[in-house]
Amino acid sequence: MTFLNVEPVTFDHHRDPLGIGEHAPRLSWIIQTDIPGWLQQAYEIELSDGTSTGFVESGESVLVPWPGEPLGSRERRGVRVRVHGADGSASGWSPWSYVEAGLLDPADWQARAAAPPWDLLADSDGPAPLLRRDFTLRGPVERARLYVTAHGTYEAEINGRVVGDDVLAPGWTSYHHRLRYRTHDVTALLREGPNTIGATLADGWYRGRIGFAGGRSGIYGDRTSLIAQLEITYLDGTTDTVATDSAWRCAPGPVTAASLYDGETHDARLLPDGWSEPGFDASTWLPAEVLHHDTALLVAPTGPPVRRTEVLHPIGVLTGPNGETILDFGQNIAGRLRIRVQGPAGHTVSLRHAEVLDNGALALRPLRHAAAHDRYILRGDAEPETWEPRFTVHGFRYAQIDGWPGDLRHGDVVAVVCHTDMRPIGDFDCSDPLLSRLHDNVRWSMRGNYVDLPTDCPQRDERLGWTGDIQVFAPTASFLYDCAGPLKSWLADLSAEHRRHGTVPVFVPWIALEPVPDVLPTAAWGDAAVVVPWTLYQRTGDLELLREQYPSMSAWVDQIAGLAGESFLWDTGPQLGDWLDPTAPPERPSEAQTDPALVATAYLVHSAGLVAETATLLGRTGDAARYRELTERVRAAFDTVYATCDGKVSSDSQTAYALALRFGLLDGAERRAHAGERLVELVRANGHRIGTGFVGTPLICDALTDAGAVEDAYRLLLQTECPSWLYAVTMGATTIWERWDSMLPDGTVNPGEMTSFNHYAFGAVADWMHRTIAGLAPAAPGYRRFVIRPRPGGGLTHAGASLDTPYGRAEVSWKRTGDQVTLVVVLPANTTAAVHLPTDPDNAIEVGAGRHVFQCVPGKAAL
Asked: Which of 119, 130, 156 is nearest to 249 (CA)?
């Protein structure tokens, strides 16, 4: 007996659609059925207000326009859907899904910015004051919502209980342009009669020290403040609002120092008992000061917050060279420790963090100016005290525990993994354990480098939203996690910074730091303005995202075209080039084999072409023609200046040929073939060791594959000698390194200042693993259609990948037994695929939804 069901509707890219910022959120649904080849012919949508679309003939089921009246602020509405198949089948109604708008109009905000008085502040990264306010409920409550944010980082409490499970809220945005707030359902935390709301407020990114070379403090402001609006709706329909203002009271708290880089100091003796509960005497507390803030900057989030996502126990207890107690958690993470300790009042437990060991001790040099040092001063309770810092995060695998009273027992210290709580959607496995570990390392590096925004490393004094890193990693990121919502937020900041500075900064949000105090256009980094939105469109089908980002996309290309001028070559200005090419000296990472002007001009061709395609999709025919002409002119200039008549590319490097081949920069099939042959020669001459940096690494395996050298791509990927992807794995890496040789073969740390052991850029190769080893790739935006083309090789006996697409789960796996390869393809409803068998890769078999098994032997294939 067949079944046809519709999963609950989702809204835009929201994981939890409470307090959203859209008036008309788009709807998506996934169909579950065992009917082979099922395709949707029509849908019906009902809203809880009685609105109904009736029978709509359409095959669309992803990001379908909102069918009712726009949502107003605070409005909650339910949606359900049923579908009709092209075969005449019909589903029942899906379960109801509910969406609730946040505060959509700046005028909805009554809350003012309540700031602790100067007497409670110190230099940046100092104490985290407490704020509180008592209030009384007049009767039974139907619902209560807390809309809250801060200039700084906060943790809110109501009646002694923490609100929500956010970490480092509200995260980091370009505060000059946008400040995210969160909506919490706090109905269950309230009770009739006296109540109390409170918050702890730390400097965070707003006032604290951030950036490299010592960083800067107070970049956005010199005063932290809380903006909170508690709206209470009683059963009788009346309402009350409790908002931050001068009636709030402030006092010191137990957090005496809180730094994102240096760590947190918590003196448990200073915690006032019951400070966020009714009945507490706050008569000696100081009144909050009210600061001006622009409510027009307050925006609802488009993705989930940072949360605690996993807890790790130590896999070993080590003794350092001076008798130190060092815990090994077996995995390099972004997070912090949670301790359970008992001892005398005033005793201090010290927690230090590092990614790797150096001669048995914590390797602290890679932290640069980040102390990564937490301290807990015991209260002296009769029962064990449990503590976890709240206003810091560290990148570490190892932790040194000093001053522990008594014996350290199992469970006393655990590592808490913290990152943006994106939904994992994609996976990969294969028969080679080193390659599978590499893929795990890529995933862990993404987790460690998405603490609210896509960063470069979680451990040192940097952790900035480098545009080039996510530009090359976006295809991999969007396969591993549902990151469209978080990246949409980051792209909004990129656009805002772009408008402000007239170009795309090398990191977003932008802060002026030595040695890069100025915003200068930089190839491959600034191109994130084009490539990241385009990648998200390809993976999600979200055309509106392209529409929102189009002004920034086109402005970037226009600016660079202006710099290229009549020569159509971008050969002026400073560049980062093929950053961290393995031949670059430790202290000069931009000194790569490939000419930076070649890289810059190649990227101008690439981005101009993508903007031309975007303009076409958006119906901007004039723009499309103009950008197509620009693309061809720059391509011709590249071909003339950087390539010879026989297809040899100047710089004669792996990256130069990868760019030329993957970006279509050479005219003529014969010349392209010669370029591919030369790339293969270079790879083989280098012993199948990698010769690319940030720019070439995402392209090299695809370029080899296009050149017909799939086995060379495999040998490059499976190489274990340095420099290579698997060298780090053989050295015990659990994340992707910043440098190919962040750790030298003798076990010492690379002497370069920039030596992170958690840096996802080189992990961009995972995208090739998904598409080519496993064979799972999109052939239409949002995976409405797939291209299944596994290319077995490298001695692998099996491989596979799975992905939760916007249409449902897709799976591809293959297994080799002798000469025979068994290929299994599972497609979700409402999709189709072109399947290219390993034994006949040039021809395609058309299939629809369902499970398909192919037995492939040389010369024939049987379904």
From this structure: 130
- 729 CA to centre of own chain: 23
Strand ranges of the sheet holding 193-202, from the earlier edge strand across to the other edge: 161-162, 153-158, 193-202, 130-137, 249-251, 286-287
Q: 740: Cβ–Cβ under 8 A, 6 or more apart, which residues?
A: 580, 582, 690, 722, 723, 724, 727, 728, 762
Cβ distance 380 to 343 under 8 Å?
yes
Shortest CA distance to 602 belongs to which of 573, 639, 653, 572?
639
DSSP class of 643: B
| Res. 114: pLDDT tops 50 | yes
Secondary structure element (H or E) that encloses residue 402, with its range: strand 394-402
Kindly indicate the confidence band of residue 206, based on its pLDDT and cuts at 50, 70 and 90.
very high
pLDDT at position 283 = 96
Q: What is the pLDDT of residue 644?
A: 96
94 DSSP assignment: P
Question: Which residue ranges form the domains of the chain, and what is each CATH number?
Answer: 4-101 (2.60.40.10), 106-303 (2.60.120.260), 482-642 (1.50.10.10), 781-862 (2.60.420.10)
Cβ-contact 684, 677 below 8 angstroms: no
**Band (859; pLDDT cuts 50, 70, 90):** low
Choosing from 462, 591, 613, 681, the catalytic residue is 462
Find the mean pLDDT for residues 241-253: 98
Residue 738 bears catalytic tag? yes
In angstroms, the Cα distances linking 485 to 166, 172, 453 are 16, 15, 11
Query: Which one is catalytic: 22, 155, 277, 738?
Result: 738
- Token pair listed for 225: 């403040």
Q: Tell me the average pLDDT across 468-493.
A: 98
Give the angle subtended at the CA of 590 by the CAs of 584 and 593, to the nearest 5°: 55
Summarize the confidence of residues 295-319 as an average pLDDT. 98
Question: Could you tell me the sign of the dihedral formed by the alpha carbons of 332, 336, 341, 345, in that order?
Answer: positive
User: CA end-to-end span of the chain, whole Å?
Assistant: 24
Read off the pLDDT of residues 756-779 as tens digits, 9 standing for 90 and up.
999 999 999 999 999 999 999 999
Per the annotation, the verdict on 462 as an active-site residue is yes
Computed over every residue of the chain, the mean pLDDT equals 97
Closest CA to 335 of 306, 376, 301, 375: 306
Confidence of residue 823 (pLDDT cuts 50, 70, 90): very high
Average of per-residue pLDDT across 586-600: 93
Give dist(CA 183, CA 98) in Å, integer: 15
Cross-strand partners of 834: 787, 846
Cβ pair 638, 605 in contact under 8 A: yes
